[in-house]
Amino acid sequence: xxxxxxxxxxxxxxxxxxxxxxxxxxxxxxxxxxxxxxxxxxxxxxxxxxxxxxxxxxxxxxxxxxxxxxxxxxxxxxxxxxxxxxxxxxxxxxxxxxxxxxxxxxxxxxxxxxxxxxxxxxxxxxxxxxxxxxxxxxxxxxxxxxxxxxxxxxxxxxxxxxxxxxxxxxxxxxxxxxxxxxxxxxxxxxxxxxxxxxxxxxxxxxxxxxxxxxxxxxxxxxxxxxxxxxxxxxxxxxxxxxxxxxxxxxxxxxxxxxxxxxxxxxxxxxxxxxxxxxxxxxxxxxxxxxxxxxxxxxxxxxxxxxxxxxxxxxxxxxxxxxxxxxxxxxxxxxxxxxxxx
Length: 341
Fold this sequence. Notes:
alpha/beta
């Protein structure tokens, strides 16, 4: 397959004296997928070239990459990852490519490309009725493994890293297979300038806006009619954390979102609801605390400090490098987390 658009790219421009040069050729089995790998007017290849400083030439089902040795290796792995996503029926957009480029510097990427996790383990993915989710950052690989191995998982990090979305996908997958009987999603209803009492409607109407991100993730993983039916039957429950008091949550996958806005007492109450054959995921961004007293009073910071290292409890920390939304979101997070001018 010939290149769709010629670009005035001189390989010599990528020839810094301090780097060893390399040239590799990769061949793909299914030429019909290469149009999607290349993108419209080769936009996907241009994205890889610009990000990694390599030159890519394609003909038929073969792609040749030239540039600094380490960049060529990363570009090769990125292109294989793009092809593999399409083989699996996954979407391939600019965000997915950006994530594959970021992951290409990690030694675990080869396991994702070849379709297994290494060491004879099955592929790292979460299957739901509406889609199959695969890791889009190196930390998501660690997180997905923790979601299948640990009883209580703390997921810490900025917005856009997939903390809640991946947890909801795993919960839906386990509900579909029958390994849990209930899915319980909770979140503190912290007021942000308004008073709940002044919002219109009954209590459900007042707290639903705080829980909307959980609904959005659910509808993305399950057909809407199934979500509504399971909400009506009680198989799926979405409620503020205050509604958890006095309960034992057995045979359930339980997710607490925005956990940085819990108090110490709320967090202790929530964690001690844990029942037989259950899994708990606590998601939050320690740098976005809205409760009075900040980190000093946050139940999330307190719980991680007390429980990290305890058997059966895992802690996954995301950074701006793990943001899987538009690339600009990662740059915004880095700007806010860095030193002020």
